[in-house]
C-alpha cells in the first residue's frame, strides 16, 4: 500500500464471514468474557421479547478489526471506532467493508481515514464506523 497511489474512494477487499451460529456466539462469549445471556441463552432472549439470541456488538467490531488488519499491519492502526446500528441475528452472513474517505498527514505520518461497516446478506448495515491507518 502506497500513500501516493491510494485514492479517496478506493475500497478494501471485503471480508465475508460464515453465517452467525450459536457456536460462534459461545466461543466469542468465552474469549471476551462477555457472558450476557441475551447472546447465549434462548430462554432469556425470548423473555426479553427477542426471537432468539443474537451476536455481541463487539463481535462485529472484532470482525471489522480483522478487515483492517488484513489490509494493514495492526501497528499502523491509529484510530478505530464504531456505532451499533442494528442487531446481527443468527444466520446472518456478515460482510465487512471499508472505503478510503480522506488522505492526510499528521504527526509526520501519511494517513488515510476509512469508513467501515458490517452489513448482512440483505444489505442492512449493522455496525458503522471509521478508522485511521498510517500508510
From TrEMBL:
Highest taxon listed in the record's lineage: Bacteria
What InterPro entries does its record include? HotDog_dom_sf (IPR029069), MaoC-like_dom (IPR002539)
Q: Ranges for the MaoC-like domain?
A: 19-113
Name of the molecule in the record: Bifunctional enoyl-CoA hydratase/phosphate acetyltransferase
Amino acid at each position: 500500500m502506497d500513500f501516493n497511489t491510494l485514492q479517496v474512494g478506493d475500497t478494501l477487499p471485503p471480508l465475508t464471514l460464515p453465517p452467525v451460529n450459536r457456536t460462534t456466539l459461545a466461543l466469542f462469549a468465552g474469549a471476551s468474557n462477555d457472558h450476557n445471556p441475551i447472546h447465549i441463552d434462548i430462554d432469556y432472549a425470548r423473555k426479553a421479547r427477542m426471537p432468539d439470541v443474537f451476536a455481541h456488538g463487539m463481535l462485529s467490531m472484532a470482525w471489522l478489526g480483522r478487515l483492517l488488519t488484513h489490509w494493514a499491519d495492526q501497528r499502523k492502526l491509529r484510530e478505530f471506532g464504531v456505532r451499533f446500528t442494528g442487531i446481527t441475528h443468527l444466520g446472518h452472513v456478515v460482510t465487512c467493508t471499508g472505503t478510503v474517505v480522506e488522505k492526510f498527514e499528521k504527526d509526520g505520518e501519511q494517513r488515510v481515514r476509512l469508513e467501515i461497516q458490517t452489513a448482512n446478506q440483505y444489505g442492512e448495515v449493522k455496525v458503522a464506523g471509521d478508522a485511521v491507518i498510517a500508510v
